[in-house]
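Quick look at the format.
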Amino acid sequence: MSKKRLIPKLQLARSKFNPKKLVVVVTKQFGDKIEIGDPVSQSKIFQDQSADELIFLNIESDFNSIKTLSEIIARVSEEIFMPLTVGGGVTSDEDFRILLSNGADKISINSKAVEDPRFITSMSDKYGAQCVVVSIDYKKEADGRYYVYTRGGTKKTELNPVGWAIEAERLGAGELMITCIDNDGMRNGIELEVPKQIVSAVNIPVICGGGCGLAMHFSQAFIEANVEAVCAGSFFAHRDQNLIQTRSQIANSGVVIRIQN
């Protein structure tokens, strides 16, 4: 049995104190941003706490996206030694090449994947499916159905997240990262209905996140939805939340997860 993964998610946005600089932020329902700190410093903390890997997402991808993002990833990769998934504003083969050459191990794509599904296949064929992570953001509407959103949660599509996950795998995605916008940053638990359905429908690893406020929320996602990994941002932004302690609590719930040596 493979061990489940615990992944800090570092969302990047312009600093309100220095608009030319990208900093780590946390959000609520993809809206209000709270600055947390420098991405390199935060990465080193998570490495010391034995994170399995890190996810970096530029949530203001219109801001000098790939150049600025690649510079940050290059600095991070010089300081830490763990897999890095990087995304935000990736729209071309050149974007993939630049990020991978600067230290990224996997590239997350979202809006581009929806708008041009052939891009998934093209990048999978060229760089390998293991490099292609399709990110799926979704929200529950008044009709009780879930819909996929793009453009940082601002543009509704008619796609169902489960159906889109199945299609993304068929097109060549090697991994899926799914987030419920309604739960993002709320710390009231992860939406598990959609992850559960997606895990049952695909044969590639599924990462879910959005809403972790307690260690039990990670355990619930692992046990009830059987996801491969859980990612979190706001949860680890609070000083009283430590990766090592959280990992032990998850293990105590019966989940097979790596414990720090």
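Next, a different chain entirely:
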Amino acid sequence: MKDVLRRLVEGELTEEEALVELRAIQLDELEGRARLDLGRWLRRGIPEVVLAAGKSPADAAALAVAMAERHGQGLISRMTPEHRAALEVAAAGAYEIVEYATSARVVRPGYAPTSIDARAGVLTAGTSDLPVANEARMVLEAAGVEVRMEADLGVAGLHRFVAPLAALLEWGADVLVVAAGMDGVLPGLVAGLVALPVIGVPVSTGYGRGGAGEAALLTMLQSCSTGLTVVNIDNGVGAGTAAVLVAARAAAGRAASAAADARGRSRTRTRSPRR
């Protein structure tokens, strides 16, 4: 990218030619079957996630490792045991695999994402919600956001979630992701108690009429708690992405406020005293 910009400044490329090359840099084709969006991280601060479902284990693993090679980390979700085995083969000991239930982050040695001065809490109603909640956690940690997870806080035992929620508020969370299946009540309950953005994730646990996450989705969409944001069923990646954007804006706001305070103090020190 720097080379393209240098050639543009030196007149070796027209603006249109530079634009074509920059677009080409952001896309990479692997054996004619997939195009990786290598510029997403630069545009949005959020890495691309390879969806393993529907892909052969070998192809999904190759995509994740290719992302790690080029960007330092590659994310993959919805893995079967076969996908997991193929990923180990593709990584071949050259990359670290950080596991998140059925998802994983493939990390190049020595790489760490740039930290964002922000914090996110991830809560689940039950332990069955953990695979989806871990998708959100994976995206947040890949983007450099500090994460705390609290599980099994469902409203069947209402007393269970009060202390963990209070601890997250004291810790200084900027945003909360709340995953729940069955009746899907927990996100609305949390959103009615806190002055933070809350992202609800309906999970496909349940049975009978309204099972497979449908009842949870409708409960969240019909919540009396105004301001609750809801993603689609099992969309932990989408919830994590939304949480990253919220957390990043919170961090940017704090940085801007601190810079303004510093400028104000500097002006105060340089003023001449009144006579």
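Residues 133 and 236 are 6 Å apart (CA to CA).

See the schema section for token definitions.
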